[in-house]
């Protein structure tokens, strides 16, 4: 199901929803551009989000971009750990919904 070749189909979405997609691509570019937070750190954040959402396209794209921006193995490993901690933490905090305040 997940094949990077599928990303070629983005052109169909662009063609069929040009205004929305033009706005999306502009927003995506602006959000990931160098700013108060350098590109390397934005790409590492994108990796953490991609690991937690388990999007193989985003993992592939943003891990490559993070590496191009200078991310090391140690940085990437720490990003994996942060993503895992937050995903596990979400399970713990969401677990509180299974309990009532009465003993």
Written account of the structure:
The chain has 103 residues and is mainly α. The mean pLDDT is 96. Helix content is 71%, strand content 0%.
Topology diagram in text:
Layout: H1 10-16, H2 18-32, H3 39-53, H4 56-68, H5 73-95
Helix pairs in contact: 1-2, 3-4, 3-5
Short description:
The protein is mostly helical and 103 residues long. The protein has helices spanning 10-16, 18-32, 39-53, 56-68, 73-95. The protein is extended.
Structural class: mainly alpha
Q: How many strands, what sense, and barrel or not for the largest sheet?
A: none
**CATH domain topology of the domain at 31-95:** AhpD-like
CATH superfamily of the domain at 31-95: AhpD-like
Low-confidence runs of at least 5 consecutive residues: none
CATH class of the domain at 31-95: Mainly Alpha
Average of per-residue pLDDT values? 96
Number of strands: 0
Question: Counting H and I runs of at least 4 residues, what is the number of helices?
Answer: 5
> What is the CATH-assigned architecture of the domain at 31-95?
Up-down Bundle
Radius of gyration: 18 Å
How much strand? under 5%
- Assign an overall shape: extended
CA distance, first residue to last residue: 47 Å
Determine the fraction of residues in helical runs and give it as a percent range. Answer: over 70%
Spell out the helices and strands N to C.
HHHHH
């Amino acid at each position: 199901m997940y094949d990077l070749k599928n990303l070629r189909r983005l052109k169909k979405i662009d063609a069929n929803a040009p205004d929305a997609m033009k706005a999306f691509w502009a927003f995506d570019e602006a959000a990931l551009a160098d700013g108060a937070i350098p590109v390397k750190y934005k790409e590492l954040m994108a990796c953490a989000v991609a690991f937690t959402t388990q999007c193989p396209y985003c993992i592939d794209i943003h891990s490559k971009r993070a590496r191009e921006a200078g991310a090391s193995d140690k940085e990437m490993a720490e990003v994996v750990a942060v993503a895992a901690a937050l995903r596990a933490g979400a399970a713990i905090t969401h677990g509180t919904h299974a309990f009532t305040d009465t003993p």
